Amino acid sequence: MRTPEYVWKIKNEVLIIRRLNHRHIVQVVPTHRLATYFAIIVLHVAEKNFADLLDEIDQMKEGVEKTVSLERMQRWPGCLI
Where does the chain show beta strands of DSSP type E? Predict the structure, then answer.
């Protein structure tokens, strides 16, 4: 069984996440509590998955567009790769 402090920490985390608004941060949709489980349902951030992006870049013809795409990707923070 979870302590009241533990439940408060989870609820506080949800409140914090709901206040955040940035294109690289997930958005909370609903939350659910069932017995000793607490679920936070979030929307994904990316427009496409990483594999699809790599396939898209791989299929580009050699040239400026492909070079720029690869250079941009190399500057991404590690958490996005």
Answer: 27-34, 37-43
